[in-house]
Design brief:
single chain; 141 residues; mainly alpha; Globin-like; 9 helices; 70% helix; 0% strand
Length: 141
């Protein structure tokens, strides 16, 4: 999926007023997601994204010297996830959750199914609930 198509879909799903807010939301969610999943998984996500969006993932996982991090995923819950997205996107946490759900739905369509399966498996239940219903249901007990 190309950058413009992804941003357009996020804009429509999140009911955002323009492409600028949709782009900011997408980049904020991708960067925060990259911090939450293992760095190798984030690298695989970046390799399947358009270059403009892959940069957000790679920047979140790079060390201060610009080298890929070998660190494992940070552990945080939905409240922290929403707070980081809100801070990056310049919005409130409720809006961040709504936008995250839209971005994750578009991401689910853009990435290879097996990669999204790994991403979903790396997320805690509360964040996983933001995934499209079918994907989130795969992990319910």
């Amino acid at each position: 999926m190309q950058h413009d198509e992804m941003i357009g879909k996020v804009q429509a799903l999140a009911q955002l007023p323009g492409r600028g807010p949709a782009d900011r939301a997408t980049r904020a969610v991708l960067a925060t997601l990259a911090e939450r999943v293992p760095s190798g998984l984030a690298d695989h996500m970046a390799s399947q994204l358009p270059p403009e969006l892959a940069a957000s993932v790679r920047q979140a996982t790079d060390t201060p010297r610009g080298e890929p991090s070998s660190a494992s995923a940070e552990r945080f819950d939905l409240a922290t996830f929403a707070g980081r997205i809100a801070g990056r996107a310049g919005t409130d946490e409720d809006t961040a959750v709504r936008e995250a759900a839209a971005v994750l739905e578009v991401l689910d369509a853009a990435l290879a199914p097996e990669l999204m399966e790994h991403v979903a498996g790396a997320l805690p239940t509360d964040i996983r609930e933001l995934l499209p219903a079918g994907r989130a249901a795969e992990y319910r007990e």
